[in-house]
Amino acid sequence: MKEKSQQESAPQSSPLKCRLANGKEVSTRFIDMESVRKSPLFGVKRFADSCYEGELRDGQRHGKGIMVYDSGRMYEGEWANDLRDGKGFEGYANGNTFEGEYVKGKPSGKGIYAWNNGEVYDGEWKEGLKHGDGIWKGVNGDSYIGEWRMSKAEGYGVHIWKNGTSRSIKPTIGDRYEGEWKACLKHGNGTDIFANGDTYVGQYQFGIILAMKRAKASRQDTVNTPGRMAAPTWASSTTD
After folding, report:
1. How far are the Cα atoms of 64, 66, 91, 107, 180 from residue 2, in angstroms, in the given order?
2. If you count Cβ atoms within 10 Å of the first and of the last residue's Cβ in the chain, which end, N or C, has fewer?
3. Cα torsion for 235, 236, 237, 238, to the nearest 10°?
C-alpha cells in the first residue's frame, strides 16, 4: 500500500529532528547523522504515523537514514529503493531488537534478534526468517546450535537443556541431544546424553523413538522438545 508523504528540505542552520508523538528525541545507534545531513541527497519524508530523516533518491529512501514511528519503533541503517537494504538496526516498541543485514526490506544474511525477556538468536536469516546456521539461547539456560529452515530447527543440531537449579557453585549440566531435527522435533539419527549419565543412541521420527542402537538407562526416555527454541518467529514489515 502506497503511503502519502511530503518531502522537505532541512534548514542548514537548524537540522530537522525526528521526534516521537510524545516529543522525545531519538538518537541513532551507529549512523553518524551529522554526516548524513551534509549529504546532497539529505531530506525528510513524513508519513501518517512516522518520519524518515536521511538520504533520498527520486523521493524514495535510498542510502543511509533513520525511520521513527509514533509507536516507539525505529530503524536506522541502509536503504535501497524505499526498502531496508544493507546493514541496519531495528528497535521495536515492545523492547525487542534486530541488528544485522537486510535485503529488500527483510532480514537476510547474518543478524541478531534479541527479545526483551533475554532470549537471543544469532545466526543466518532468509526473507525475515531464521534460515541457515544459528545459535538460540533461551531465558532459562537452554540453548540450540545448528541448522535452521524457515525459522525452525531442521538438519543437524545440538540442544542443551538446563536441569535442576543454579544455586550450586559448579555450573549445572543438563540433558543434551545431538543429531537430526525436523520442524523443531528430533527426527532421524541422534544421541541423547542425560545429566545423570544415561545415554540413548537411536532413530527418531518427529520426536518419537523408532529404534535404539545402544542404551544405558535406568528410566524410560521422555522425549524432550526444544520449547520456545523457534518461537516467536517474526518477519519485518514491507509496508513501511
Report:
1. 21, 19, 23, 22, 44
2. N
3. -110
Q: Are 75 and 66 in contact (CB under 8 A)?
A: yes
CA-to-CA distance for 94 and 240, rounded, in angstroms?
Answer: 18
Domain membership of residue 186 as a residue range: 140-219
Query: Which secondary-structure segment (H or E) carries 33?
Result: helix 33-37
Residues 15-24: tens digit of each pLDDT: 345 554 445 5
d(CA 212, CA 220): 12
Amino acid at 2: K
Nearest 10 degrees: Cα torsion 46, 51, 57, 63: 180
Residues 8 and 79 placed together within one structural domain of the fold: yes
pLDDT of residue 70 exceeding 60: yes
Give domain status of residue 127, yes or no: no
- Phi-psi group of 39: left, alpha or beta (phi > 0 → left; psi -120 to 50 → alpha; rest → beta): beta
Could you tell me if 110 and 100 are in contact, meaning their C-beta atoms sit under 8 angstroms apart?
A: yes
